């Protein structure tokens, strides 16, 4: 099944002094999602932004807000982010009871995603795939922008697509016009990219990814 390719620019790579303008630009030139990395300085080394920043941007955009909680024990944050997000993704490595966390996200009427770090096998999702809307395959180790794509993740994407023909597969890390071709051929349909888009001609970059 061929799925529509969706572009989800990562706000982490935008100019923080003009976030509203940056979001308007990528929306104008064909992005459908906005990827929002929430980092706690614990699960990943860096700290990014939280609910107040994302909430303030919600009223200025019609993009799908794709919130990626890169935090330990994310359950305590889900209620706050549910007010202004469309998809909430948690890391399988960061939760004690994955099914319970997925059900919590669903209880707020939001789509649930589960992210897997590069070394985390697909097996952890064996009993949960039917309950989630999206799997985020990390193609770099999380926590920093501008990292080099890990080529072994191509097979991981292929394996997941073989297991489930319909689920949304999102990829995040080192995505540019070259790696985008590889992940799309492998079966990914949602591409997260930060520095590639925000480093220049937004229209040209988004079109090249699609």
Report a brief summary of the structure.
By secondary structure, the protein is α/β, with parallel strands linked by helices. The chain has eight helices and eight strands. Helix 3 (75-82) links the parallel strand 3 and strand 4 (87-91).
Q: How would you explain this protein's 3D organization?
A:
This protein is globular. The longest helix has 11 residues, at 153-163. The protein has helices spanning 19-28, 51-58, 75-82, 98-107, 153-163, 177-186, 195-198, 202-209; strands spanning 6-9, 33-39, 64-70, 87-91, 111-116, 134-138, 168-172, 190-193. It has a single domain, classed as Alpha-Beta Barrel (TIM Barrel), CATH 3.20.20.70. The chain is α/β, with parallel strands linked by helices. It has an eight-stranded parallel β-sheet with strand order 1-8-7-6-5-4-3-2.
Describe the secondary structure blueprint for this structure:
Layout: E1 6-9, H1 19-28, E2 33-39, H2 51-58, E3 64-70, H3 75-82, E4 87-91, H4 98-107, E5 111-116, E6 134-138, H5 153-163, E7 168-172, H6 177-186, E8 190-193, H7 195-198, H8 202-209
Parallel strand pairs: 1-8, 2-3, 3-4, 4-5, 5-6, 6-7, 7-8
């Amino acid at each position: 099944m061929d799925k529509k390719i969706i572009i989800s620019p990562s706000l982490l790579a935008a100019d923080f002094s003009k976030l509203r303008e940056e979001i308007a630009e990528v929306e104008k030139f064909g992005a459908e999602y906005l990827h929002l990395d929430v980092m706690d300085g614990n699960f990943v080394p860096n700290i990014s932004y939280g609910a107040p920043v994302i909430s303030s941007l919600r009223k200025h955009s019609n993009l799908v807000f794709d919130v990626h909680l890169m935090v330990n024990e994310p359950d305590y944050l889900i209620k706050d982010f549910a007010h202004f997000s469309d998809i909430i993704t948690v890391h399988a490595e960061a939760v004690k009871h994955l099914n319970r966390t997925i059900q919590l996200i669903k209880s707020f009427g939001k789509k649930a995603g589960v992210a897997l770090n590069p070394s985390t096998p697909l097996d952890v999702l064996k009993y949960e795939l039917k309950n989630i809307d999206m799997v985020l395959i990390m193609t770099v180790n999380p926590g920093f922008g501008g990292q080099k794509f890990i080529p072994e993740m191509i097979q991981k994407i292929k394996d997941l697509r073989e297991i489930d023909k319909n689920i949304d597969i999102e990829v995040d890390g080192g995505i540019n016009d070259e790696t985008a071709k590889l992940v799309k051929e492998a079966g990914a349909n949602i591409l997260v990219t930060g520095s590639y888009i925000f480093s220049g001609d937004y229209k040209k970059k988004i079109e090249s990814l699609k």
